[in-house]
Design goal:
heterodimer; A: 532 residues; alpha+beta; Beta-Lactamase; 5 domains; five-stranded antiparallel β-sheet; 16 helices; 24% strand; B: 207 residues; H-NOX domain; four-stranded antiparallel β-sheet; two-stranded antiparallel ribbon; 7 helices; 6 strands
């Protein structure tokens, strides 16, 4: 009995031990389960992507915090609700059906309903969940917000469109630029003048065929070369010398006698873009033919004038003898006719002399004989010579000359008197009746200024630029005085400029005109001589 | 004996002590669902208030230390609900709402998701669900009429506190909603109750 009791006690002890072991195991399993639950919950909560689990009949059974955040609804408002409460019905019906049929959907755009933002577009993925028996117990849906992606897509599309438009514009601009370039190349190539373009460092950047022909060079040999390098080309050296001499000038024009059969007018101008210098444009205009024609004309005029002057001089002396009565007494009528003939002959001689002077000027043969002279005396002499004419015309003359002595200046007295004569002759001819003429001599800092003024017809504004041109006569002057060669002021301008002075005028049509010239006061004789 | 009149649903040391003598156990997940609701509605301070209320009734409990799958005394289930009600002056409707929310966050319910494929099957599995939560009482699925949208369940051999009866009306209505895919929460009414002299609890759910 005692044995039996002991055995029972042993069994009970064993059962108790077994129960305690099982209990321990259960507790351990529970702890593992709790730990697993905590792990699953944390994993589910960690995902930044909204995730939900829906039952096969489409009821949401679980969501993660990201789902709550995106939807704006709380878990209690979501779990247990039909899935179509949160996704657009048509979208999600197909999506769920496909998921249950295929087991997954890789990517599908769905419309997701949110509390705050209303419907937004999301990209969704799904995966069914099965139990070990193979039965589907629901499916996971994970998705991400496409709002920003779509926004970026729209922005990208807009940017792309803008870029394409820009590219189109650029292409059009390029085509236009090409067209312009082709036009420019065509113009440059076919230009009747030679053309050279230098960059800001004075390296030759462009030539045209004519410039290459003028200098007998090839563009490829000279483009990119500096002034110094270009000087080594014998044909180009004279041009480069001119360009170097004037390299600081924004604009200049100069003749270049390249060779006997090639005279160029070289025009150079700085090219600018947005007020910044981009280079220098040099245009070479062939003026050889003009020069030849001009020379021939001058030679003809000179020859004709010389040939005319001899008989005119003979006529003058014959008429003079007749008028002096050397060939017999003249009747009053005869004298009158002969006097008119004499005057006309004198005019003819004057014209011939003016023509000869102008051809000499053009040919550089106008000889100056400068001496130190008192300009006041020269002016006074001319004025005295015109006193009778002034009186005859009913005019008055006022002369203003400084009291103190003026410095002597280096002048060709005869030529300067000619200038004053021209001024005064014009002033008399084109004065109003009873008008007053003015002759003023002033001393400036470095020059002496002589002015002759009148009150009269004046010079029309539009004709002022041509006053010093050869053979020019004002339209109102021609009406007033038919006589006149139109060479006086041309000759005067050349005389004054040869003296290193300046010539000019101020005029108001129908009122008054003042012509003036200046002669520089030069102390050093050597310097003076340089000018002649 | 406890009354169905909610004004009598108070918590003090005597009532807590009495309830803790109730037989049977329940899973910790039930307390987790309680405190999740408090946290959502009242925040962290609300949780502290409830814990303070429990301490006043002689029970020092920290909700965060409760383990989801571990068993706790069945009486504590009613004590927890009473502490919450008394802390915030909750009405029957609030307690019912707690029941509505509970299945949505219950881990046990998630284990039963595999049965949510069809309403009939889920309905049949209800006793298992009860068993997984509690060690006392049995639930009996009596009727499931999908056509007339009505079901009846009974709970036998179980008598805790009327506050838990109220909680279950909310709980069952959500379960039905989850398996029947209705957009409206169903109406669940306790038609029979041991606290009213009946032999068992009977819940009629319509949707």
């Amino acid at each position: 009995m005692a044995e039996e009791i002991k055995t029972s006690e042993k069994i009970l002890e064993k059962e108790k031990h077994k129960s305690e072991e099982e209990n321990k195991e259960n507790i351990s399993l529970l702890e593992d389960l709790s730990s697993l639950e905590s792990y699953a919950r944390e994993l589910f909560s960690f995902s930044p992507l909204p995730i939900c689990f829906a039952s096969p009949i489409g009821v949401i059974l679980e969501i993660n915090p990201a789902f709550e955040r995106l939807s704006g609804f709380g878990a209690y408002e979501i779990i247990g609700e039909p899935i179509e409460n949160f996704f657009r019905k048509d979208d999600v019906a197909d999506f769920s059906k496909e998921t249950l049929e295929k087991g997954f959907v890789k990517e599908r755009e769905l419309h997701f309903n949110t509390k705050e933002k209303g419907e937004i577009l999301v990209s969704a993925f799904s995966q069914i969940r099965k139990v070990k028996e193979g039965e589907t117990i629901g499916y996971f849906i994970s998705f991400f917000d496409l709002t920003e992606v779509k926004k970026s897509e729209v922005e990208l599309k807009n940017s792309q469109t803008a870029l394409l438009n820009m590219l189109e514009d650029v292409e059009q601009a390029r085509k236009k630029s090409d067209e312009e370039r082709n036009k420019t190349v065509a113009i440059v190539t076919n230009l009747a003048d030679g053309l050279l373009v230098f960059d800001t460092e004075n390296n030759l950047s462009t030539t045209n065929p004519l410039s290459e022909k003028i200098f007998d060079i090839k563009g490829r040999d000279v483009v990119g070369r500096s002034f110094r390098e270009l000087e080594t080309f014998p044909t180009m050296k004279p041009l480069i010398e001119i360009l170097e001499k004037n390299s600081k000038k924004q604009l200049f024009r100069e003749e270049l006698n390249l060779r006997e059969d090639m005279i160029l007018e070289v025009s150079s101008v700085f090219m600018t873009s947005e007020e910044k210098r981009t280079g220098t444009l040099v245009v070479l205009h062939n003026i050889t033919r003009e020069k030849v024609v001009e020379k021939m004309k001058s030679e003809f005029v000179s020859l004709a004038a010389h040939q005319l002057r001899t008989p005119l001089s003979a006529i003058k002396w014959t008429l003079s003898m007749l008028l002096d009565g050397d060939l017999g007494t003249l009747t009053q009528d005869q004298r009158s006719f002969l006097e008119k003939t004499y005057t006309s002959n004198e005019r003819m001689i004057t014209l011939i002399n003016d023509l000869l002077d102008s051809t000499r000027i053009e040919e550089g043969r106008y000889v100056y004989r400068p001496i130190l002279s008192d300009i006041k005396t020269q002016v006074q002499t001319v004025v005295d010579n015109f006193q009778e004419e002034i009186k005859k015309r009913g005019l008055k003359i006022e002369i203003k000359i400084p009291n103190k002595d003026l410095p002597k200046v280096r002048i060709d007295e005869e030529k300067i008197r000619l200038v004053v004569e021209n001024f005064l002759d014009n002033a008399i001819k084109y004065s109003s009746i009873g008008g007053v003429l003015g002759v003023v001599i002033e001393k400036g800092k470095n020059e002496i200024k002589v002015s002759v003024s009148n009150l009269g017809i004046g010079i029309a504004e539009e004709q002022k630029k041509r006053v010093f041109s050869k053979f020019f006569r004002g339209s109102n002057a021609i009406k007033t005085e038919t006589e006149g060669t139109g060479l006086g002021l041309f000759i005067s301008k050349n005389i004054i400029e040869a003296h290193g002075g300046q010539i000019g005028f101020e005029s108001e049509e129908g009122k008054q005109t003042t012509f003036f010239f200046t002669i520089p006061i030069k102390e050093e004789f050597e310097e003076f001589l340089k000018d002649f | 004996m406890y009354q169905t009149d909610e004004s009598t649903w108070i918590l003090n040391k005597e009532i807590a002590s009495e309830l803790m003598k109730t037989g049977g156990q329940t899973r910790g997940v039930a307390f987790k669902t309680d405190i999740d609701y408090v946290l959502k509605e009242k925040g962290e301070d609300g949780v502290k208030t409830v814990e303070k209320k429990l301490a006043e009734s002689g029970l020092v409990i920290k909700y965060k230390d409760i383990e989801t799958m571990k068993y706790y005394p069945m009486g504590l289930r009613a004590v927890s609900l009473l502490a919450i009600k008394n802390s915030f002056g909750f009405t029957k409707q609030d307690i019912r709402n707690m029941g509505v929310v509970a299945p949505k966050i219950s881990l046990i319910i998630k284990f039963f998701m595999q049965y949510f494929m069809s309403p009939e099957r889920t309905f049949k599995e209800v006793p298992k669900m009860w068993k997984k939560h509690h060690t006392v009482g049995e639930i009996e699925p009596v009727k499931f009429d999908e056509q007339n949208k009505e079901s009846i369940v009974r709970i036998k051999n179980f008598k805790l506190h009327p506050i838990f009866c109220c909680f279950l009306t909310g709980y069952f209505s959500t379960i039905v909603k989850m398996i029947e895919r209705t957009t409206q929460i169903g109406v669940c009414e306790e038609t029979k109750c041991p606290f009213l002299g009946d032999e068992y609890h009977e819940y009629v759910i319509r949707w």
